[in-house]
Amino acid sequence: MRYSYYPGCTLKTKAKVYEDTTLQTAKALGLEMVEVEEWQCCGALYPLNTEEHFSLLAPVRALSQAKELNHEKMVTLCAGCFNVFKRTNKAMREDGELRRKINDYLEEDYLGEVDVVHYLEVLKKDIGFTAVAEKVKKKLEGRKIAPYYGCLLLKPRNEMDFDDVENPTIFEDFLSALGATAVEYPYKTECCGSYLSMANEEVAETAVGRILKSAYKSGAEAIMVACPLCKYNLEEYQKQLQDVAGENGKMSVLYFTELLAEALDV
Amino acid sequence: MKRIGVFICWCGSNIAATVDIDKTIAAAKQMPGVVFADHNKYTCSELGQDMVKNAIKEHQLDRVVIGACSPRMHENTFRKTVEAAGLNPYYMEIANIREQCSWVHKDKETATGKAISLVRTAVAKAARNEALFSTEMPIERRALVIGGGIAGIQAALDIAETGFEVDLLEKEPSIGGRMAQLDKTFPTLDCSACILTPKMVDVAQHEKIRLITYSEVEKVEGYVGNFTVTIRNKARSVDMEKCTGCGDCMNKCPQKVSSEFEMGLAERRAIYTPFPQAVPNKPAIDRATCRWFTQEKCRVCEKICPTGAIDYDQVDEFITQRYGAIVVATGFDTHKLDKYGEYAYGKHPDVITSLEMERLFNASGPTGGKLLRPSNGKPPKNVAFIQCVGSRDKAKGNPYCAKICCMYTAKHAILLNEKVPGSKSFVFYIDVRTPGKDYEEFYNRAYEQHNATYIKGNVSKVFPDGDQLVVRSVDALSGALVELVVDMVVLATSVDARSDAKDLAQKLSITTNAHKFFNEAHPKLRPVETQTAGIFLAGVCQGPKDIPETVAQASAAAVKVASLLSKESLKSNPTIAEVDQKRCSGDMSCMAVCPYGAISEKIIEERRGRETVTRKIAEVNTALCQGCGACTVACRPGAINLKGFTNEQILAEVDAICL
Fold first, then answer.
1. Shortest alpha-carbon distance between residue A155 and chain B (Å)
2. Choosing a second label site near A194 at 20 to 30 A (CA), which of A92, B217, B279, B408?
3. In this structure, are residues B112 and B20 in contact, taking their beta carbons and an 8 Å threshold?
4. Using CA atoms, how far apart are residues A146 and A134, in angstroms rounded to an integer?
5. Architecture label for domain A2-121
6. What is the CATH number for B89?
7. Chain B residues with CB inside 8 Å of A187's CB?
8. What's the gap in Å between the CA of B400 and the closest CA on chain A?
9. CB contact under 8 A, B463 and A165
10. ipTM score of complex
């Protein structure tokens, strides 16, 4: 199976391991990822903007570049990019007036032809978690992992259509395919503090603190994420764990692809 | 030449503010056949009607056009008016210059132009109106009440008390409905069962009431005064004649299943009555779970039954019955919570719905009336109540207010505090709505005397913390984030129409609103009637309401039924189809489109030259025809006409607008 692949800025820098493990595991599973040529920033702003068409120019440009690769689907990894592309694409498919304006400005003719999917969806729907489980060489047996979804994969519900917004289970299903145990705790969809880690650290720190402590108390040894920003925040405020885990308390935060790479032994 | 009178109504400012009455009158006077035109502020008033009657006599009018509101509103009123002045009622024609003109337009000049057009149209038709005569139709003087909850019970009792026979149809094995599930009732806290069960017994014992339980409506035919209803009598697998209601079978049945009546908080057997005070107190076998029907073994009930009443071979029976009137009282479903994952319902046993809370409070419920947490069987100290779950929620629930939740939540807070001394409740609300006699005082009692704290805010999440639950919300009045640790969470689930309401509406030819509640004929003036004559509404199937309102509406429906059945006969609607024998080619296209089966074939003899030949033509059954007009469109030779709406009349109307 061939897919267009849009990495996004973080995956080439801070989240290099996310990209590496994705490409390795994709190869092991027989998937071909063709990187979109001359891709640029996804725009990143769309979730924050409601009225301005301006913030759609970057993602539509990236999407029309992906269209030229002639693959049915474009795979993304970063939850932020996924959120931007999925929503932009839906808007381009459904809003005729918007479609006309953006295309006029960009001198493109993009009608929403590309399907934007997340790598996790590829694993679930295109390959199937059962088939993934069959390819697992080293079962992650006994590993207790806390699935942490954050918000961008799931919300807003009508636009993302990714999983049940209040009680998603795709991470859990993925973990059990790898043989690991998904820890149940109440903070799996709560906010990580997002960009407030720059603007108002206290808020982000409190938010992260709740998640870390709850996961720790539920017996998790690691937290699984799909978003570089979640990972950054969860790692940044590890000292919040001190109350419950002692002075050197630590909780590792892993991309789901890292766990997949480990299980597939690539 | 006809002598036509035109009467333009102001309808206060409803018409007069948008339509120039003087201009319309002046234009009407120029129309062919019009010999008189005048106006009135309220033509429907006594003064207005007198003006019409006097003008008919004074000016020897033989056709009347009223420019006023929709015929839906006052056609009957004005037909009676002209009849009182000695004219055939069908000589009157209405020009709808309110709903179809003044209400939907702003510009006075164009609205006036349109009003004149509409009057011209009506004048053209009135000139061609013929006298039509109703015939008398006998009435089947019996009523059917669909639904055996408090609404149906009250309606049935009230109708029966007027002396007419009533069949009370219930789909469950027992009557009682939702009210039987409730513990206490607001605002007086009398026990629901104590006030309901005597009525259930009255129903069972009333000589004019026949109970038909475990049955559903299959098909409805006919019309007001003459409905023919086919009822599916579901196979109960118990012979009602032989069964004495001893209950041995229920004690010995080895198959336990979750009880619907107890909202899944307790079990019942596969052979069961929904609750101990069931009426009739005779069980039914739930074939979906019975071991004999699912695994072909067991038959314990048959062995145990002292009277040999168990009958595994029963099949669904269909009974066909005639009724003059029908009351629909089918109640409601509670809102499904699958879109409210954030409240952890179904994930944590201590998160329950308000109806489940009723069962936990109830002395005959699963805990014997002790309020205990489902998770550990201990009494809760702190309970959070979340109101408007599924109500007033345009995004994922019902946009409407379910009306009863504020009051029953206040009741739950009071009962909780009474049952568990020292306990505390936290009520999360959007608004507290208590319009009703003694309602506000009742709600005051909850927070003044019963330790209830009201917090204005939408709960965003409920999640477990150890063996307790954390409720997270905003306190909208202070703007602060609130996190409470509680022992139980009660969700005030919204009220939905029955999931099969659309099907029943279709069978009855009545309409529903966007949320599948049955429509009343007029929201203010005809609240218990439907648009279909002879079919009436009672209870929540028409819209959310509490017990006092339900009972009032049921009694009102009963009066409507009684006043209909008290007549010996009804006047038939004369605007029905008529076949012109000479033109009918006998291709029977009309028969194929008639929704009422009112058209049949008829063989006639004709002289053709010197020969007598026979040929086939269509014939209309005047009792069955409802005057829908479908046949007149299907008829290619134009041989079938709807009286009062003949092709000639319609074409005259079109010409009046277009030419």
1. 14
2. A92
3. yes
4. 23
5. Up-down Bundle (1.20)
6. 3.40.50
7. 463
8. 22
9. no
10. 0.70
